UniProtKB/TrEMBL annotation:
Matches recorded under CDD domains: DEDDh
Protein's UniProt keywords contain Nuclease: yes
Transmembrane annotation, as ranges: 6-23
Protein name in the entry: Exonuclease family protein
GO molecular function: exonuclease activity; nucleic acid binding
């Protein structure tokens, strides 16, 4: 290879290396500047989990295991704001899901039901639950028959678990009475509210430092990924919340 050509090639490679080094230094400076100007409380990039496919939600109980926990969730006709009175809202359940778990949080059974209703859903409720008026009307699961199955499993359990337990027990109790069923097992069974437990962990706070109630997705994200800003994909919201709640329970059990 002629010497002049080699010299030119060396010069070109040197220039290319210098350009790459300069780009790298500028890029690093840019990243450092972004980190320095980013607010300390800025959310971290979110993880994502699918409750219908992730192995985090697969925990079958061994053969012969006995029921200990019943984890459940409801969805209602209307969106009922926590900060406003419940009068004027239709709090009848339109979906009910639950899991029966052993003492270690392993799953013995899982059920999820859309309840038959004739009244139309509001667009806001459909946007939240993913259920339509047609879904409710076409469902073959009457509220009473689903509630009887739920109560049968509750009688096998020693502890009732939910996220925002007081709310879910309240809406079920009222509809039990409408259906001619005894609601007392909902209040006589030992209970655990995962929302209250999540607040006691103190990972979600307001500007003044007061501990706040986390959403079930935030609690699950904190317990499993140390990041409350978790994206969760799902087919059924009621079943999603039950699976997130049961998985969170397994995480806190000794």
């Amino acid at each position: 290879m002629p010497l002049p050509f080699v010299s030119v090639l060396v010069v070109l490679l040197a220039l290319l290396g210098a350009s790459y080094l300069l780009y790298g230094m500028r890029r690093r400076t840019s990243l450092v500047r972004e980190l320095r100007t980013q607010p300390k409380d800025a959310p971290r990039p979110s993880a994502e989990v699918d409750v219908d496919t992730s192995q985090l939600f697969v925990s079958p109980a061994p053969l012969g295991a006995k029921a200990h926990y019943l984890v459940f969730d409801t969805e209602t006709f209307d969106l009922i704001p926590d900060e406003e009175p419940k009068e004027g809202y239709d709090n009848r359940p339109i979906a009910l899901s639950w899991q029966l778990l052993d003492e270690h949080g392993n799953c013995l059974l899982e059920e999820s039901h859309v309840l038959h209703r004739r009244e139309p859903l509001s667009p806001e409720a459909t946007a939240l639950h993913g259920l339509t008026s047609e879904d409710l009307y076409l469902s073959l699961d009457g509220p009473r028959q689903v509630y009887e199955r739920f109560l049968s499993d509750l009688h096998r359990a020693q502890c009732l678990v939910a996220h925002h337990l007081a709310f879910h027990c309240s809406v079920l109790s009222e509809d039990f009475v409408r259906e001619g069923l005894d609601p007392s097992p909902l209040t006589s069974t030992q209970a655990l509210c995962m929302m209250e437990h999540g607040r006691s962990l103190g990972f979600k706070r307001n500007a003044s430092g007061e501990s706040l109630y986390p959403r079930i997705t935030e609690l699950f994200g904190y317990l499993y990924f140390s990041r409350p800003s978790l994206r969760v994909s799902y087919a059924s919201k009621s079943l999603r919340d039950v699976r997130l709640c049961a998985a969170s329970l397994r995480r806190i059990l000794p």
